[in-house]
Write the structure tokens for this entry.
Amino acid sequence: MTTAPAPVPGRPARVRGPAQDVAGLGVARAVGFLAPALLLIGAFLVFPAIWTIYIGITNYRLTGVEAVSPSIVGLANYTKALNDALFHNALWLTVLFVLGSAIVGQNILGFALAWTMRRARPAVRRTVEGLVLLAWILPSTVVAYLWIAFFDRDTGTLNSILGTQGTAWLIDYPMVCLIVFNTWRGTAFSMMLYSSALQAVPPSQLESARMVGASGWQTLRDVVFPHIRGHVLTNTLLISLWTANDFSPFLLTKGGPNHESETVPVYIYNVALQGGELGYSSAISFLLLIANLLVALLYLRLLRRRS
Amino acid sequence: MRRISRLSRLAVLGSATVLLLTGCLGSSGDGSGDQDSNRNADAKKVELTIGSNSVKGGKSSAGATFTEDVLIPKFVEAQKAKGVDVTVKFQGDGSDDEVYKQKLALSLSNKAGPDLFSLDGIWVGEFAQAGYIKPLTDTVGDAAKVNDWNGWKQIPESVQQLGSFDGKRYGVPGGTDGRVLFFNKKLFQQAGLPADWQPKSWDEITSAAQALKKLPGVTPVQINAGTAMGEATSMQGVLPLLVGTGATINSDGKWLGNTPQLRQVLDFYKTIYGSGLGDPVLQREAKGRDKSFAEFAANKIGILLESDYFWRSVVEPKEGVAKMADRDTAVGYALIPASKPGAGVKGQDFVSMSGGGATAINPNTKFPQQAWELLQFMNSAEMVKASLNGAAKITQRTDVNTEVLAGDPMLNFVATKVLPITQFRPGLAEYPKISAALQQATADVVGGKSTDAAAKSYQAAVEAAAGKDKVSSS
Amino acid sequence: MTPAFVVRRIGFYVLICAITLFFAVPMLWIASAPFDKSPGLGVHWPDWTLDNVRKTLDHPYAMHSMVNSLLICVTTAVAVTAFAALASYALSRVRIPGRDALLYGLLLLSSVVTGTAAMVPIFVMMFQLGLIDSRFGVALVMTGGLLPAAIFILKDFVDAVPKSYEESARVFGASTLQILRDVVLPVARPGLATILVWAFVNSWGNFLVPFLLIRSIDKQPGAVLLQTFTDEGGSANLSVIPVFSLLFSIPVVVLYLLVNSRYGFRFHGGIKS
């Protein structure tokens, strides 16, 4: 027998759209509050975005004849992408990368850390959390060096630990390396989000679950999860988006060897900078945007089912 | 109903935006051609900026230091004597070449950017096509003034290609280099090979490699391949081999497609990497070229196809990246043979490839005349020699080369034996893509694909890049 | 203490140790390589020397780039935090039509657009605005890119500030601004602090935006300079890179420690009401 989640005492029932202007802000002031942010976002995000979409229907390049007189090629870039084996490859690798490192890796490790650290001694908790956070806040260029050194074929730490001198991890298993790397890099966000989410689970319910002898898994499923479902979804959405658009794989492998770790952002970079095909790279960026949109819509549907 | 009207409103908004944006791309057309090339010729106060992908304490530090600490002060001083007050700024970047190129192009497309800038020889064509640079005679205005510069006589015709496009001079070339086969004489001795080794065909390279293979822990031969090394694969791999089959990457306006010569090159790669004569992993690593340097210095690589840069900056005994204290006795060098004697380009027995950069003038500079003066000053014998700062390097000027290379047999070998037989890459806008396709083809072969399959996908990539009618094949 | 309990405890600590090692081991390099006589990619007990540190300090632009980084990133972090705070409060408390769609739309855009594809538009726009070679311009672009996610995260915090606080303050006759300053701000402070660190960290590592928009090397931030540390041959200069990486990491760590000790560092409101 398991306890049904009782309505949380003292917690205001979440009505849809919690907007109640309790501080008496008023619409005019609200718009004033929004204005600076919207202005900056409009100028430095929306405007370049629209422009990028426009470049996506041209054959624009930064050098060569097409730099002087780019012509509108309509959807040619998009049909090209649909038939581009390298783009398909990049898309597939991105799906793997997001599934492996964000949805599974960061999510599960982040939750496991949040769950176990709840009851750990403060000193242990601080050390572990500090390390996890450090991995997250170090600048990405620095982190890239750390991991290149870690995976190095000749003197790398991993090979010293495993006694596998001469294994070129980044060459032989590039995607596995990237997934491990990104799990290491990004777990902190999930850990923190889940730690604060878990505080919202009433201890009384956990206690009663223990009293009736529910197993750990049952407790998680029937008591904890209903409370943090929204957070799981928000977290998964954010880390999936960040991972899908993450550029740090480039710093580790440059997409290599032979495109084996070329995720979509890396592919866009290579097309735009190495190949100079800005029109095509803009079109791919737009496709990436659409893919992100689909993921977000799926998430919104799941979130709506919650309430 | 409401929905539809909202949609159509969106559509109107969208098309209006597209119209607005159409004006924002490619607006950089001509126009600069109408400018008076004698503008500000008599100015007493002049400001010039030199742009280069180098930085003190970082990438190409010596070049940046020379420009900032020697060239600029000397030029300012010389102009002062003429009563002109010149300020020259140095704008160094020191990042990856690709990002430097895009940054430079972004500035130039907005009619901005440094007055003089250095660019790779292979960018000259695409920059010229985009109108970012103009023939020197146009920018300076006076054809005689440009053509009569006495420096041109000192720069060999072949080297002048570095700054030229469509038969016109767009810039003054900087130094150049040449590619040879380096080999480790100590390993050669252990394998019973001669110290004055000079292969006459690819088969002789393979048989030497076979002999070296018997030595434990030694990679017999390393020829750059794969996409991880980028242009290094083309310059120290495919292209020198290709000219050894008699083909060039672009001839008679057509790019090389899936031809017997290309397949011959890919087969050679297959021989090397398929039978354990080369280390295929090294070729896939992002830092594979650096690693090959270190391994050569540690007596672990027998034969390495590299440029003279390897000799003067990598295994250089004092300051090299991978120092070899006994370089002068332990490192041998030989010309790269054609696949068979006489089978090379122009019927040559031996072949090579060279690269380098050039300095061009921004057509939108405020001071075209003064920029041309600075460009000549930069390439004068005195300054070119000073830029070496005592080091031996192959410069663009023959007079300087004869003087400074006398003491270095290897560089002298390149200047006198390699430069006459060398080839340069075409400075065409499509080149980077063709080069990438070549790299991909080697990656495919080394990765285990058949020569035919790799050559077929190469053909498709070249056709996509250059257009079907501009590719040769058979 | 049942044997099962003991086994579980041991298992628990083994797991903790494994996780700790997983996070700590890759970082060892930055602790050993900066002080090693011949720094390479391996991790070993260093052959102590301060030569590398001296070389880095002597580098003509290294220390200056840190100042540039600080200028750019402090501006960015403060702007992001301030504007995101205002916007998220308005979005949380006032009914604005199409709010959620707007928020998600922007979030999606921000994750895609800030990359390579938008480099031409951003460059041309900044060029027309006369903001090329300006550290302030770089901060503006980064702020625009970070704001949507910051608003998204911060709104979660503000949503969690119990409205009863504000209601009771209002009952006691406090003005709107007083409520914001004395009631909402203190409660939301951990959230603001977290966003500040987040924005700082994200702008600290950004390479492409400053690289393209800044011309003079003496205005470039550390993230750009780190890419220039190659030797004459073009290979990574391992006597400067480890020390610089270490120095370059200090500001973010210090900022985090400061914020964490004063406000706590977390990513969700979750205040119990």
Notes: Chain B touches chain C through 30 residues (CB under 8 Å). Chain B has two domains: 43-169+356-424, 179-353+427-472. Chain B is about 45% helix and 15% strand.
